[in-house]
Amino acid sequence: xxxxxxxxxxxxxxxxxxxxxxxxxxxxxxxxxxxxxxxxxxxxxxxxxxxxxxxxxxxxxxxxxxxxxxxxxxxxxxxxxxxxxxxxxxxxxxxxxxxxxxxxxxxxxxxxxxxxxxxxxxxxxxxxxxxxxxxxxxxxxxxxxxxxxxxxxxxxxxxxxxxxxxxxxxxxxxxxxxxxxxxxxxxxxxxxxxxxxxxxxxxxxxxxxxxxxxxxxxxxxxxxxxxxxxxxxxxxxxxxxxxxxxxxxxxxxxxxxxxxxxxxxxxxxxxxxxxxxxx
Amino acid sequence: xxxxxxxxxxxxxxxxxxxxxxxxxxxxxxxxxxxxxxxxxxxxxxxxxxxxxxxxxxxxxxxxxxxxxxxxxxxxxxxxxxxxxxxxxxxxxxxxxxxxxxxxxxxxxxxxxxxxxxxxxxxxxxxxxxxxxxxxxxxxxxxxxxxxxxxxxxxxxxxxxxxxxxxxxxxxxxxxxxxxxxxxxxxxxxxxxxxxxxxxxxxxxxxxxxxxxxxxxxxxxxxxxxxxxxxxxxxxxxxxxxxxxxxxxxxxxxxxxxxxxxxxxxxxxxxxxxxxxxxxxxxxxxxxxxxxxxxxxxxxxxxxxxxxxxxxxxxxxxxxxxxxxxxx
Lengths: 279, 328
Prior knowledge:
The structure holds two protein chains of two kinds. Chain A is of the alpha/beta class. Chain A has helices at residues 55-62, 85-90, 110-117, 119-122, 126-131, 133-154, 170-182, 200-215, 227-233, 251-255, 258-271, and strands at 15-26, 29-40, 44-48, 70-75, 78-79, 93-95, 188-192, 219-223, 236-241, 244-249. Chain A folds into two domains: 1-92 and 191-279, 3-Layer(aba) Sandwich (Rossmann fold); 105-185, no CATH class. Chain A is globular and about 60 Å long. Chain B has one domain (33-271). In chain B, strands 1-2 form a two-stranded antiparallel ribbon. The longest helix of chain B has 27 residues, at 204-230. The N and C termini of chain B lie close together (10 Å). The interface between A and B is large, with 40 and 31 residues.
């Protein structure tokens, strides 16, 4: 098991995302305490831990929805800690949510969701909408093509563009949320339990999707409970428990780490056949 | 086919364009009614952008209506400024106040935002009443001249009618353009889920402020038009009840559709012309119609029209079923 503590803020270039000594409390309840780890460029890193370990809180801190009490978040060596979520998104960091959060007001369709996904590329403004209508029409056509491409990439039919998101089966809603996050061509994705609620076949497809996204050069931080998916897809794993980092390392190292097994893997680990491991 | 889809609107436009020279000649009173309809259409449509698209509840739209009216009125009546310039000033003042207040107020959500805008309306009305030396106070501002543009005095209601409705068409087309553009989609995203929108890079406070300012400026324009039309304005015209009236017009017509807002404004402004016959029971029928529409047609009047259109089309299909392989 190896612990990486680098005092240079991850500026050594290998780590795209570097989280340093993040502490976050809510009215006396410590959700995160001194959590540090990095995600290497082009890797898929899984963030696992029992429910309540602080995984979603950590994602919220990284994506700017929450401010940590102390500590820093570095992205490409730049300190993002005090930035707001839309500024962090502009840096190239996109995320999805545990409970799918698609846009549904005003009968928004699948295509409208994807259009907003391209916000950073389109940079809409009321001036452009009023005075540059020709350019808007041109942009809309481009966005439509890109939307169709992303839909196909995640495994959805481009024809779905005009349906209401609420009419999609749950698994497809999850895929749509990912397609939407991909519209801005992000450098890094934070995924919050994207496989929860998916059946085995869907998880298998999802595994291939993650690998395809990785192949495009996108770095992924994946919060997941589905251990088989994690083991199949992750390059490294970091484990949280009660807001503290319990362990960090490769899949083999983590699956044979006694502390981790005790805290978390337990019966699940035995189920998918944890082989020989040193005590 | 584009022509068939728009034929309804073309007919409506034609009706609006020809009214003063046809039916309006028979009864000039209705010209004045339709001018007021036009003014309220601008108010309702501008509010739709804010409430229907961006999802920001405002119950104080009349505050900006007032600012446009009083700025225009004071500049023309007391300082002899030409009306078009005064109108632009009214637009500017409304926008400026919206900018200043919006930055703070738009941090609030839901009921709190509604209460804050309600409070804003009350404050503005109170300020107008108190600064009587400037605004004429509770007794109102008198002697506001008619609109003068390009040397032409629009005193005749027919001329003013075309001026107002020209602006109404312009405002509606601008709001529709905004609603259908990526800017509109951004507003809808903010309406749905601000947090999720911000993770896609949407600067929610900025867009909320922009739509608040635009909406308020348009209300200011309506205010100026009102001031020059009536020649006389008083704080009572811009109180909370007016804000609520605009809100009701919006929901009655169909919130979030722009055209629905226009329909609601027209309906509610024309309804008294029908219900006055009930004399003492006028308010009763007013309220009854509102309740019935809101209960049975949550999509508002526009929803009813859309349903009627569907029924007519469906009836057409049943009588003439399309042959195989034909696209409707």
